[in-house]
Amino acid sequence: MTQTSIVKIIEQVIERGEIAVLVTRVTGSQNVGAKLLIHQNGETFGDLGDAELDSAAVARAVSFLSSREETRLFDFSSFETSLLFERLQPAPRLVVCGAGHVGASLAKLAAFAGYQTTLLDDRVEFLKRERFPEKQIELMVAEDWSSAVRDAIGNGRGVSVAVVTRGHNEDEQCMRAAIKTDPDYLGLIGSKRRTSIVINRLKEAGATEEQVKRIHAPIGLDIGAVTPEEVALAILAEIVCVRRGGTGLPMSTAKRR
Q1: Is residue 256, in this structure, part of any structural domain at all?
Q2: What is the SS3 string spanning 3-56?
Q3: Domain check: are 192 and 147 in the same one?
Q4: pLDDT per residue as tens digits for the range 30-72
Q5: pLDDT number for residue 155
Q6: How does DSSP classify residue 84?
Q7: Is the pLDDT of residue 24 over 90?
Q8: E strand intervals along the chain
Q9: Range of the domain at 144
Q10: Can you name the residues that pair with 95 across neighbouring β-strands?
């Protein structure tokens, strides 16, 4: 496969919002620069100039994807070469359902952190552009919550969803729509009692046990948050933790483990 062909495959992977690993041979006596693209499902494109090395790279790609690392250089000494592994994945997006104090703070914080953010609400006055001058924030009026949520999430790949609306009914509409899209992260704000009510209704509506287990409720990490800005920080911290494969522990504790 030519370099031009592999580039086209990479573009297709990114356009479809899929996850893959691009492996490049960076040292050795031959085939330096050769590339092998390994899709998350194990399908491959290209080669490194050695069938056995290709197989070894595919095996290593499994653990690389699990690690959530962006890039890593591996030494394959038995083949007298080193391979650079690079993760290909969708750019991070966040859909925030509810533009109240917490939702507004979360949208701004997420945009600052590099997330392309879509902020939804059924109240037009809460979505004034002067409140959100950030270019990374898309404002969407939810005339119908279910349709708006589905449109905003798309295929769910690379997407995190935070449901932080003002009430049970709005929460439930958003959650019913969001859970069917299988986003990378789905969180619901509220007390244990409030979130339990919504989750039980989701089950009654046909949500599977596996889908329900993936819901982060109550949403966010426990940092003792009080203000809307602090709650938004706790939510974004959990979203990043899930995306990057973190522990959520203090760094001082994590380093001792």
Answers
A1: no
A2: HHHHHHHHHHHHHCCCCEEEEEECCCCCCCCCEEEEECCCCEEECCCCHHHHHH
A3: yes
A4: 899 999 999 988 899 999 999 999 999 999 999 998 887 889 9
A5: 85
A6: E
A7: yes
A8: 20-25, 35-39, 44-46, 71-76, 81-88, 93-97, 116-121, 137-141, 159-163, 185-188, 215-216
A9: 93-244
A10: 118, 161
